[in-house]
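Write out the bound-state structure for zinc ion.
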Amino acid sequence: MGLEMRKKCERCDTKLYDYSVAYICTHECTYCEDCTKQTKHVCPNCQGELVRRPIPSGACPIQTKKEAVQ
Ligand SMILES: [Zn+2]
Ligand SMILES: [Zn+2]
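---
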């Protein structure tokens, strides 16, 4: 509830799925893992800290597990 799930990275336009590893700042700017690493977990838009986006319940647990291992 509340969190808007964005479908792509705001920096490089990489597609992000619900179960993808993604990072968000407090203003819900959304980035892929690569961009998060490149920006050292700092949002380029607002300088906020980027944290791992929670995976929504309902996402496939097998897919989720696969992502986590990589
Ligand atoms: Zn990106
Ligand atoms: Zn931001």
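---
The radius of gyration is 12 Å.
The beta strands are 22-24, 30-32, 51-52.
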